[in-house]
Amino acid sequence: MKAITFLIHTHQPILATSLQGDPNSDVSYPYIPGSMIRGMLISRYLREHTIPEADILDNTEVTRLFFDSTTRYLNAYPYIANNSDSDDKNRCLPIPRCLYKNKGIEFSEGEEQEVYDFSQNKPNDDDFSPKSLGEDIFCRVEYRDIQLYKVKRRINIHNQRDRKRGRGTDGSGAVFRYDAIDAGQTFQSVVLCDSEKDAEIINLLLTHPQEKEQINAWLGGSQSAGYGHVTIELLPDENNWNEVKDENNWNEVKIDWEDRSERQNNLTITLLSDTTLRDDYGQNTTATQELVKVVSETLGVQLKHIDTYATSTIVGGFNRKWGLPLPQVAAFAAGSVFVFKSEPLESQKVDNLERQGIGERRVDGFGRIVFNWLREESTFSAIKIDSTANSKPEEKPLSPESQEISQRMAERLLRQKLDELLLERLEANTPKDSTKISNSQLSRLMIVARKALAEGKPDPLYELLGRDENSDNLTKTARTQFKQTEMSNGKKLDEQIRDWLKNPDIWILSAWGSRPTVRNRPRVTIAQQSEILDDNNQLSLEYTLRLIIAVTKKMMKDKNND
User: Which residue of 278, 404, 444, 449 is most buried, as measured by CB atoms within 10 A?
Assistant: First the structure.
């Protein structure tokens, strides 16, 4: 068996619609299903191989690669780093449902809390009130330490529109919501191939023609509405076999069965993905006895069932070729745990069962199981981690054309934010009484300020007002009017204008607040390109002159209204 591991970097939200939520919303799974990955690879395969549509199901290679359980496409779960070592990254797995916390305990980033494994022992404390760790939680387990992670999501509101008119109408204008996996996260998936030849084909489908480049792909729904763009990074072989002796011992928890079989207490089976089973009458079932029957027959040992920590779910899917949903059936939810009396098991049969899985739709990653995953401990130390910084995909260098576009966008966005600050500052710098100065003086001030703005220098205003308060550039009457006009901060109008011209960036820096900066200068970044408020104050001077013009206009408007 060959395991091909690769990373999926999300550059747009991913909508892998699950069967939950109200009729006016689509709620995504917290992971990327194996069926979506299989569908993406089928599309890539058909583009590279000219196979008539009528012959697809008769093609033995196509059937072996995509339609039977010879090749299995596992779900892509979050790929996160250990806080203590950013190079130590692994694929998370669904949290076992046998783990509980005390009611009232909340997990915060960086704070450890105790969780209890009820499959081993239940606390006898009367004050202990068990509560599950929550839905859609993924984890990494290292001895007695458990790292908890929840996938970052994004909710967008959309309006249905008429395709011909391009807008909503009375009959087609409903408001609906998408709850999707957010962009900027990394997931890891695995393709298990029983054949070396099949593994080579899958490798080629995941490899860009130019080495070291990641391939672009689109997954999930609403791809034309800004959803689904991902890049795929194939991991080298040495990353596929961490701490594994040989290919036949590959498993998802990266612990050999020889080490896990030494545990003396109960035998546990944990489902690492949703699992669908049928009873003797061909009906889908979530009865525990059916799972016990399937596992016992495969292992050749009659297991004695003791306890269950499981829940059921409804699974479906969508066939893009048909344009129709798949049948909805009941299934055991990922993370379900089944406890049995400890039995000696054959190593080869356990390895085969963990590699092949159980139940139906194993080609889509359903039915993944693991034996004795958690250590024989009653309590574990759990900590919530935020791996968004670790999981963001590495950004590729932009082309010169893209850099130019990004730079222009960053400049426009910076100007937009400065426009917002100008409006805020205008409201905060209204004169207490505009009647002290005549309209003729205000008109003269505006004309001179516009001339300074056109020339890009403050000299025209200095020629009008002078460079200090003792200047005699103004006539006595005009100087008196400027000094009698007091601003809301207590400064005289001419004094305030001189202060703005002397340090044109002071008011911008004070109003910028907690927005991004670099070297204490306002900054806006778009696609690796940053626009920083220039140190030579040219942009600051431009907006300062615009502020002076805006204040003058407002004073004239207030006088006219009076």
Answer: 449
What's the half-sphere exposure (Cβ side, CA atoms, 13 Å) at 72?
23
Of 104 and 293, the one with more pLDDT: 293
Cβ-based neighbours of 51, under 8 Å, separated by 6 or more? 59, 62
- Report the C-alpha gap between 356 and 280 in whole angstroms: 21
What would the DSSP string read from start to end of 397-426?
Answer: PPPHHHHHHHHHHHHHHHHHHHHHHHHHHH
Distance CA 361, CA 34 (A): 10
3-state secondary structure 447-505: HHHHHHHHHCCCHHHHHHHCCCCCCCCCCHHHHHHHHHCECCCCCEHHHHHHHHHHCCC
CB 274 within 8 A of CB 334: yes
Cβ distance 34 to 189 under 8 Å? yes
Letter for the amino acid at 410?
A: A
Residue-wise pLDDT for 263-301, tens only, equals 778 899 999 999 999 999 989 999 999 999 999 999 999
Instruction: Tokens for 353, please give them.
Output: 């069962």
Please give the tally of structural domains in the chain.
2
Pick the closest to residue 68 from 195, 246, 214, 221 (CA basis). Answer: 195
Q: Which residue has the higher pLDDT, 50 or 282?
A: 282
Q: Which helix (H) or strand (E) holds 298?
A: helix 288-299
Same domain, 74 and 214: yes
> Are 346 and 428 members of one domain?
no
d(CA 460, CA 445) in angstroms, rounded, equals 10
Please tell me whether residues 380 and 409 are part of one structural domain. Answer: no
B/e letters for 446-466, b = 16+ CB within 10 Å, e = fewer, are: bebbbbbbeeeebebbbebbb
Cross-strand partners of 522? 517
List the one residue out of 274, 230, 212, 268 whose CA is nearest residue 29: 274
| Residues 6 or more apart in contact with residue 389 via CB below 8 angstroms | none
| 242 and 337 part of one domain | yes
Give residue 107's identity as a one-letter amino acid code: F
CB 118 within 8 A of CB 98: yes
- Is residue 389 over pLDDT 50? no
Per the structure, the complete domain to which residue 253 belongs is given by 2-391
Q: Which among 339, 364, 391 is the end of a domain?
A: 391
Q: At what angle do helices 538-561 and 400-428 cross, to 10 degrees?
A: 40
Q: Which residues of 99-137 are buried (b: 16+ CB within 10 A; e: fewer)?
A: bbbbeeeebeeeeebebbbbbbeebeeeeeeeeebeeeb
Q: What is the pLDDT of residues 487-501, one digit of tens each?
A: 888 888 888 888 888
Q: What is the three-class DSSP state of 306?
A: strand
φ, ψ of residue 50 in degrees (nearest 5):
-85, 90
Q: Distance between CA 491 and CA 483 in Å, rounded?
A: 9
Mean pLDDT of 250-264: 84
Mode of pairing for the β-strands spanning 25-27 and 175-181 = parallel
Residue type (1 letter), 197? K
Contact 367, 361 (CB under 8 A): yes
Partner residues linked to 177 by β-bridges: 25, 157
For the chain, how many residues are written?
562
